[in-house]
Amino acid sequence: MDSLSQYVLGAGLGVAVMGRRTAVWKAALWGGIAGTLPDLDALIDHGDPIRNMTFHRAESHSLFYLTLLAPALAVGVARLHGEFAQWKRWWLALWLALFTHPLLDNMTIYGTQLAQPFTDHPYWIGSVFIIDPLYTLPLLFGLIATGIDRGPRRLRWNALGVILSTAYLGWSMLAQQYVTRVAQRAVAAQGIAAERMLVTPTPLNTVLWRILVMDADGRGYHEAFYSLRDGERAPRFDRFERDAALHAELAQLWPVARMTWFSHGFYRLREVDGRARIADLRMGQEGGYAFEFEVARRGSGWHATPVLAVGERGDVRASLDWLWRRMGGADLPPPRRAANPSLEAGP
Predict the structure, then answer these.
(1) Partner residues linked to 307 by β-bridges
(2) Which end of the chain is flanked by fewer CB atoms within 10 Å, N or C?
(3) Structure confidence by residue, pLDDT tens digits, 214-235
């Protein structure tokens, strides 16, 4: 999730655990700092864009390592404020702030290596977008109301914010399961031979969902969108080619193997002007993938090149306009198909 969401979650948990045992501002400050700490790994340059992408959310997001860090951080905070008698309570507060950071990240589609050092498997649920105001705002308002209210029950505002935001995550998973069932019926009805399927929300909401289906033969993939306002209208899939032969030629290149693993198979390889590009299909939509990389060039055969980020987000204004209208159930083609109908292909 974004840094603001992680900060206010950590701050809210800090205030909830510390209660009246310390000043609200102290609990919010240190809970927020602990909730943000794991993302400092984004400042590390691992040498190229694919390494930076796939080594993010690794050791710094390990539930094991964060649990080991919590008591040392708690002792430091307790001594700093002259509250050593409360260090065990600080330990619980800061452990929760640290521990819930990767768990919240796991709700997005990116991939979080929760079980380091035992496995580097990137786990994900994918039921919320990386930025979702309906998750963040209850936490933020709860903290603000707690800071403004001087009454004896002011902590209830913070508790309410934590409860509502957590309930929203539960709602997102229920909505995801519902759309998954809708998608499975549509895939079967349209005769698509699917190897794997992904259902994840579009930006900023949990009403409009993107469905991505990979062909069993590895030659293509299908994309559709379904709004909870669509009712009985089935998702309509567009099919796009994936160069399976190119992947066979380049599979041994480390960047290609790494992206194939990290994306759980939801990737696309293509040749553009004699250059091989690989994209993570989970993040973005057809016509705009943020995580696309140039990894090789054609000469007398294929040659590895320094990895270059070439991703793009498409027309953001047109996408947001379409997003809002499509969320409401309007039967509209995606922006990339409306702008270029030749992109559309049948299953």
Answers:
(1) none
(2) C
(3) 999 888 999 999 999 999 999 9
What is the tens place of the pLDDT at every residue in 285-339?
998 899 999 999 998 889 999 999 998 877 788 889 999 999 999 999 988 764 4
User: Coil, helix or strand for 238?
Assistant: strand
Structural contact between residues 133 and 3, judged by C-beta atoms closer than 8 angstroms = no
Cβ neighbors of 321 (< 8 A, separation 6 or more) are: none
Cβ-contact 107, 127 below 8 angstroms: yes
Query: Are the CB atoms for 229 and 328 separated by under 8 Å?
Result: yes
Using a 10 angstrom Cβ sphere, with 0-12 exposed, 13-18 middle and 19 or more buried, the burial of residue 58 is buried
Closest C-alpha among 323, 341, 324, 328 to residue 233? 328
Cα-based distances in Å from 174 to 26, 136, 187, 345: 36, 19, 20, 31
Contact yes or no for 297/275 (Cβ under 8 A)? yes
CA gap 160, 143 in Å, rounded = 10
Say whether pTM exceeds 0.85.
yes
* Sequence-distant (≥ 6) Cβ neighbours of residue 101 within 8 angstroms: 6, 9, 10, 35, 36, 37, 38, 39, 61, 66
